[in-house]
Inverse folding.
């Protein structure tokens, strides 16, 4: 019975909360929130018709793509392979939630942040594979642009996460421990407290900018620029292939914003109680609001400008934050 209960908790964690179902629902709700917020910034209405204030519009769009629309692609475009790749990306993101302590069953071991980084990296690889999986030049251009940026922003993401986790959980490099019971080093020592704040600020800025690039939000929406490459890596997708690609994007963004918000604003203990979950979601939407306002206050940049920005800002800041974390 104990073994069956353990298996049940693991399945519930990865498939329901905070795994697949939770991330899909949170990601699609976040898409509605982003569209409404951007519409307000641009003096538009945004989603309006499906559900109260249009809150169910993203769900209806994805449902239509997955279960109503048929797959229409180029003759040599491997639609089934693309669906497999995007589904596998969503599954790896859901699997990485076992390291988050807002779950009935979680895994917390030393150096688990490295496994988390490895699992979430696959989503970025999936975008590149989708772009290169078409014979049309437009998806290929999108895949090339994304892969070029990925060479810079993925190291910045990984180094920033390592710096924050090392500062909050010194000696273990456990993202589970950093989220559930962060040990604030140098309590009562003003110098150590100042170093910790510096680590969180520098790593937070680096991770936020890298996340905008990773999620292809403005000004880094170069891989899917409609006016230049006709939608980029999404240009040849339709039906389930397009629906799964949208889900992959929303699930990845939801997971990283959830982790980022709770790392930068720690409120221990982060346990699966209703109050803690509500607090976690409040922090989530606060950080998402800041990211969206900053992103859509800028226009799209060229690829060379994006690369210069990523090399000059988030990458050095992430390295600096990691160096400072050794002083905490």
């Amino acid at each position: 019975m104990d073994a069956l209960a353990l298996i049940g908790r693991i399945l519930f964690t990865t498939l329901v909360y905070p795994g697949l179902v939770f991330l899909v629902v949170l990601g699609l709700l976040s898409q509605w929130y982003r569209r409404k917020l951007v519409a307000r910034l641009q003096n538009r209405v945004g989603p309006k018709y499906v559900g109260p204030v249009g809150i169910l519009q993203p769900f209806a769009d994805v449902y239509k793509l997955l279960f109503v629309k048929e797959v229409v692609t180029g003759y040599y475009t491997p639609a089934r392979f693309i669906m497999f790749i995007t589904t596998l990306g969503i599954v790896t993101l859901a699997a990485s939630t076992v390291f988050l302590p807002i779950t009935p069953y979680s895994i917390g071991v030393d150096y688990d942040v490295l496994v988390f980084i490895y699992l979430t990296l696959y989503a970025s690889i999936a975008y590149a594979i989708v772009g290169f999986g078409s014979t049309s030049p437009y998806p290929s251009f999108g895949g090339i642009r994304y892969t070029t940026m990925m060479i810079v922003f993925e190291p910045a993401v990984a180094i920033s996460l390592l710096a924050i986790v090392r500062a909050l959980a010194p000696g273990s490099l456990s993202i589970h421990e950093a989220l559930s019971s962060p040990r604030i080093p140098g309590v009562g020592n003003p110098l150590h407290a100042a170093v910790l704040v510096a680590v969180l600020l520098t790593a937070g800025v680096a991770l936020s900018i890298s996340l905008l690039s990773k999620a292809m939000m403005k000004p880094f929406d170069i891989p899917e620029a409609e006016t230049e490459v006709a939608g980029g890596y999404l240009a040849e997708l339709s039906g389930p292939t397009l629906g799964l690609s949208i889900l992959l994007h929303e699930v990845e963004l939801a997971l990283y914003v959830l982790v980022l918000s709770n790392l930068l604003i720690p409120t221990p203990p982060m346990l699966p109680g209703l109050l803690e979950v509500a607090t976690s979601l409040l922090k989530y939407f606060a950080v998402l609001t800041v990211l969206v306002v900053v992103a859509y206050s800028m226009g799209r940049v060229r690829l060379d400008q994006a690369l210069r920005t990523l090399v000059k800002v988030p990458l050095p800041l992430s390295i600096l934050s990691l160096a400072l974390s050794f002083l905490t």
